[in-house]
Amino acid sequence: MSFGIQDDSDDVMNEINMTPMVDIMLVLLIIFIITIPVMKHSVNIDLPQASNQVQNIKPETLRLSVDAQGAYFLNDATVTVTDAEFASRLQAASQQNPQPELHIRGDKNVRYERMAQAMATAQQAGLKKIGFITEPKR
User: Fold this and answer.
1) Least C-beta-crowded within 10 Å: which of 15, 21, 30, 98?
2) Fold of 61-132
């Protein structure tokens, strides 16, 4: 038998102390309980309903043909169109919604000046989509 003061610090601890882990879990639980209602808080708004149907409105196409002599033919008509009438028709077409496209087909022997006049008239009328129609090389 020994008589003396025993130091308890020499004993080995065999169990894991669960108290700090339970304290941390309770604190996290309380934080989540408090913050989730704040995150879900929103203003109720009655939003309008929209349809998602695609509108297939294709714009009209104006077809301008220029023959070798420089005469204008609009929309494959057999009657030549004067410069003033051509400008007034393009002005009227540029006011349409959606705006039509202008497709130009020029004879290979037509003077470049006549094609440039047609493009300038279309630009002054306000047409934004102008394209050239060609034939593939054979």
Assistant:
1) 15
2) Nucleotidyltransferase; domain 5 (3.30.420)
